[in-house]
Amino acid sequence: MNHFLDIHKTDAAALRGMIDNARSMKNARAGRPKGTPDAEQPLAGRMVALIFEKPSTRTRISFDVGIRQMGGQTMVLSGADMQLGHGETIADTARVLSRYVDLIMIRTFEEQTLLEMAEYADVPVINGLTNRTHPCQIMADVMTFEEHRGPIAGRKAVWCGDGNNVCASWLHAAGQFGFDMTFTGPPTLDPEEEFIGLARKKGANVVIERDPAKAVTGADVVIADTWVSMHDSQSSKERRHNQLRPYQVNEQLMSHAKPDALFMHCLPAHRDDEATSAVMDGPHSVIFDEAENRLHAQKAIVRWCLGV
Ligand code: CP
Ligand code: NVA
Questions:
Q1: Which terminal residue of the chain has fewer beta carbons within 10 Å of its beta carbon, N or C?
Q2: What are the start-end ranges of the H helices in the chain?
């Protein structure tokens, strides 16, 4: 079963194939209206459940549009409206859904929910974000980097801020796509040791550097994300902001990166907190290309999962 649960759990050659396929699907429909079906309809007759236990703009819409472009049908479901939100087990939900749909995408809180869904479903399951990882985002980000700057292998990516779920999937990608990763942020918000270890084991040079200017020096891409993720308590907001303010990505910090460095953010952003509007709207920024590429990258992920 081709589940897409995490970047480090997916074969590196398969990941590369997905990026290539995403690119060719994107090129094939360049300039066509968003609602036009793709020339190829590999998802004809397929039904996909998109389950959200957390809010989403990009993930929800890009999966929905992408699947429809490929001829498939979708159901967008809120976890809270399903029996899943009222005590039915994940295993039973997975077994039942497998009788109705060909593929399940789930955005949830605990990673365990995703893993149980995959264990008990008879159809492929895609991770649409958990508290720990966000692999679909980083597939789009790798695609975006390569569109602008060529192969990501051997490059230096610098994460500024909270070592959160998006950072974790960047670390997984560093191992699988062969690039180096520097983390700069306060010690209490370091990425999980397990994820750093995985990247290092695959040969990626992973550095923790507390001085943001030093960290960003020589960067090919500088990445920021929200300081308070959806699973973080609102009561931690003030403390997090105080700890993370020195790691804001602003023009001064970007001046230490390579002159042609990219700035990335998965969005949604809190403008002028984790990154200034001058950077987000400035010449280094590719944030809306990242958002667009969610569509193309996920179409390739869906096709890989279904083998079509
Ligand atoms: N980047 C991302 O996953 O955005 P959404 O939360 O809007 O889906
Ligand atoms: N780290 C963020 C990513 C949102 C797409 C969160 O989990 O809220």
A1: N
A2: 12-28, 58-69, 90-100, 111-120, 135-149, 165-177, 193-201, 212-216, 237-244, 251-254, 277-280, 287-306
Looking at the DSSP bridge assignments, the partners of residue 73 are 47
Run means of pLDDT, 10 residues per run, the chain, 308 residues:
98 98 97 95 98 97 98 95 89 97 98 98 98 99 98 98 98 98 98 98 98 98 98 97 98 98 98 98 98 98 98
57 in ligand 1 pocket by Cβ < 6 Å? Answer: yes
Smallest CA separation from ligand 1 atom 1, residue:
266
Nearest-ligand number for the alpha carbon of 168:
2
Count of alpha carbons within 13 angstroms of residue 81, beta-carbon side: 8
Neighbours of 121 (CB within 10 A): 24
End-to-end C-alpha distance for the chain, whole angstroms: 13
Q: What is the DSSP string of 25-49?
A: HHHHTTTS-TTSPPSS-TTTT-EEE
Give one word for 270, left, alpha or beta, with left for phi > 0 and alpha for psi -120 to 50. Answer: beta
| Catalytic center residues | 107, 134, 137, 225, 266, 294
Closest ligand 2 atom, residue 266 Cα: 5
Contact partners, residue 45, CB within 8 Å, separation at least 6 = 71, 72
**What is the pTM for the complete model shown?**
0.98
Among 52, 109, 164, say which to mutate for ligand 2: greatest number of ligand atoms within 8 Å of CB.
Answer: 164
Which tokens is 104 given? 């399940």
Residue 30: which region, alpha, beta or left (left: phi > 0; alpha: psi -120 to 50)? Answer: beta
Q: Which of 52, 60, 166 to mutate to test the pocket of ligand 2 (most atoms within 8 A of CB)?
A: 166
